[in-house]
Each structure stands twice: as C-alpha cells, then as structure tokens.
Design a protein that fits this description.
By secondary structure, the chain is mainly beta. It has two domains: 3-324, Glycosyl hydrolase domain, family 43 (Tachylectin-2, Chain A, 5 Propeller); 329-480, Exo-inulinase, domain 1 (Jelly Rolls, Sandwich). It is built from two helices and 33 strands. It has helices spanning 3-13, 475-481; strands at residues 31-42, 45-53, 63-69, 76-82, 92-101, 104-115, 118-128, 133-140, 154-162, 165-173, 179-186, 192-200, 209-217, 220-227, 244-250, 255-257, 262-263, 271-277, 283-289, 303-304, 306-307, 311-316, 319-324, 332-347, 357-363, 371-378, 381-388, 393-397, 410-414, 422-428, 431-436, 441-446, 455-473. The strands form six sheets. Strands 24, 25, 26, 27, 28, 29, 30, 31, 32 and 33 form a ten-stranded antiparallel β-sheet that branches. The longest helix has 11 residues, at 3-13. It starts with a helix and ends with a helix. It binds beta-D-fructofuranose. Beta-D-fructofuranose is lined by residues 34-35, 51, 62, 94-95, 110, 155-156, 210-211, 271-272.
Amino acid sequence: MNGLQQARDYEKQNRVPREKQPAFHLCPPVGWMNDPNGLSFFNGQVHLFYQYHPYSMHWGPMHWGHQVSEDLMAWKLKPCALAPEDSFDAKGCFSGTALEDNGKHVLVYTGVSQKDGKEVQNQCLAVGNGTEYRKAGLIIDGSMLPTGFSCQDFRDPKLWKRDGRYCLIAGNKDENGQGQIVLFTSSDLQNWQFESVFLQAKENQGQMWECPDFFSIGKQDVLILSPQDMEDNGQGIHNGHNAVAILGHFNGKTFEAQSEMQPLDYGLDFYAPQTFTHPDGRQILIGWMSSWQAPVSADDQKWSSQMTLPRELSIEDGKLVQNPVRELSSYWKNTLQFTDLEIKDRQEIPGVSGRYTDFTLAFKEPISSRFALELAGQGDTYTAFEIDPKHGRIELDRTHSGLHLDYVSLRRNPLPKQGISKLRIVQDLYSIEIFVNDGQMVFSTIIPTDESSDQIRFLAQEKQKIDLEFHEIDVQALRKNSLEA
Ligand code: FRU
C-alpha cells in the first residue's frame, strides 16, 4: 500500500472522538501537527493543510493533513493530502503554500530528500481539486540558489501572483549561516528564476528564518516570518523561536523594511503563522498554537497541538493588529451584559463561567492597582492573567493549570504605554487567547486543564469598575457544522 493510502486509512480508523477535542480550534484527528500550510480559499471553502504525523504524538516524516471550513470556525476533516513517498520528498513534505490558479488548487511545498549523503530541501509542486492532489515534482532546486547559499536550509515557500507573474519567497541561510529570505519568479509555475535576496537578517534577528508570509493591507506591505534562536529583548521577543511582522515596501525585487520586528503574540504558544486574503478582502492569519520546546497536551491525549483562532488583520499607528474573525459571533449564546460592575478582592460573577466562552471587559477608569483573572479554575487549578500597573507588567501564567512537566509557564511583558482599556478573552476546551486593547497585543496559550475546571474569577487589589459582555459558545452547533459531507 502506498504511504498516502496508509495515512488515510490510519486517520480514519484512529480518529479521536470530536467531543474530546476543541470545538472551534482546528486540531489533527489523531497524532502530531505543527505548522499551518496552504491556507487559501478554493471552491467556496477555506482550506487549511498542516504539518502532520498521524502515527504518533511526536514529529515524524511530514505529511500534509487537510481540513476545510465555510465559516473559519467549524472545520471538516478531508483525507490526508500529501505523504512523503517520492524521490523528491522521501524525507518529508515540509511547509508550504497554496493558490487558486485557473480553477485548480496549486500547492507548493518543501520536499526534503537525500543528495550526496546530505539532506537537501527543494520546492515541489502538487495540483489538485480540493481533495486529491497530484504531485508534479521538483520546481525549484537548491542548486538554483547563488553559490554559498544553503541547500540544506531552503524551505517554507509562500506564493502569490503580481502583475501576471508568480512570486515565491522562501526561508534560507546565506554563506555566513545568517537568516534570509530569497525571492524567485516565474511566468508559468514550472520555470523559475532566482530573483534576489528579499530581506536579510540584521544582528540579533535570529538564525534561520522560517515560514515567511507576505501580503498587503491597503498600501502597506507586510512580511511575517518565524526566526529561530532569538534572545529575549524584554519587549515581547522571547528566547528561542518567535513569530514577528515587519511593515515595509516590496519594490518588485526586495523588501524595504519600514518597522522593527513586531512580536505577533506575547503568550506561550504561537509559531509559524500563515495568512490568506478572504474573497471579502480581509487578510486572515492562523498560527500554530504550540511551541517546539513545550508541546503541552492533556495527559491522555492521542492528538497534539491546535491552530489559533483565525484572526483578522489591520494596521493601526504603524502596528499590525489582530482580532478574532467576526464569524465567532454567530456561535454566541446565553449572552450576559453588566455595566459598572465593581470588582474588589477575588470574586465570581453569577452566570459567568465555562470553558467555551468569549467575553470582553471594558475598564471604566485607569487600572490603578493589581487586576487579574483566573481562568479554567477550580480550587487550586487556574490559569492567571494579571495586570500590574505599579510594576508596569502584564503577564500570563499557566503554572497552576494542571501541567506536570517542566515547561515554560509564565510570560511577563511590559504594559503598553497607553495602559489597558479592554480585554477580550476567548476560551476553547484546551486553550485561552487574550486580545488586549482591540488586538494591539495578543496572548495565546494551550492549557492541559480538565474540562470540569470552569470557574472564571475576577481579582482586584483595589475597587475596579468594569463593563462586561459575556457569551457562551454554541458547541453543539459547531460540532454539527464540523461533520464531513
Ligand atoms: C517550522 C518548521 C518549518 C518546516 C516544518 C517541518 O515550524 O520547522 O521550517 O517546514 O516546521 O515540519
């Protein structure tokens, strides 16, 4: 039996029951998942592929798993799309991109293979109809890179069409082992030329640059990338692998940076995001809500990792801003609204609890002393989000979330200069995402906490007045809409 059929049979036979999984965060049916791949709109549906090893809870020979959605909330499983079984991708079908092209769904991914005793990474093409994909083999060989550029680290293509010409960028390393992004162009998707170094890492901007993504919002061009091995800068960049945005201008050859690296997420689990342009014009981002060093999962889980909520992107005051896609509101139920609530000490609010929730706090006055939330709580179990104006800190802490492993659990960041006026908290079964000040900062984390821990506690050192809008999420409707056709 071939590798693709084997993976399809395996995922069908071993699929984890949907009720044991998050309701609106995409996760694999079984086994390991990392980066989102090929996020695109094709034939009336959003398609999301992902790095996938169905056979274990660990990274292994990479396949492309596949799911689709009509509303970016309810995800339906499609059969596994690619398996590493050909000479050009025998060591793995690594991350890549997708595009609708003349009625066909075009995928370009990194094929990892062996050459002269070394692993090499090349860009490969597959074309399909939304379910079945036929591999067309290698289209950009590492040997097409200028001399000295790495053929071992040459991966994660992003493809787009501009003025009738295809542009493709990919992560790479230069002759000094420094991270860079290279640009190739083509008029027919088959024949490609090396065009230029799109952007090169400066000092302290990480080693290998993984998973580049490029788009425009109005006249502003934006580059997203995931640099490895960075050092904490006290401003949202943490040690290790980060995901950042750079605003700039693509002049047809290179990317002229106009901003510093802006961290995309200040929480514990976020990497390798991709974006696509929705037919209604929105630019939408989905990231891998996990981390290479700490892939948190509940003790008995047979599947690993989730994607973030899809997020609508905009630019405000020279900064990329992210908010949950508006489709989430169509699953709201049991809405409660409170005005001028006074919070003091630690308290719960009648009717405000649950693990599938979306709620917003608006602060009526500046936060003058410590203010915190304890989420997914019960007894000594909770995940804390705390604002400490005295020390100028905002932090997310999952130390007491039921985690038994020695994983990073606390992320502390400086308070934004303008203070905090609003918090929106979205919870699904094993995750929490917090959008601060209408998406100026986002904190994402996976928690392994049992579903029965469903208290939401409010804490204020001194009296704090808030407005609160609380919604439960209609899990049943989501499950129904996730059933395969
Ligand atoms: C990023 C990454 C990519 C690569 C993939 C392999 O998380 O390392 O660079 O294509 O994962 O699974």
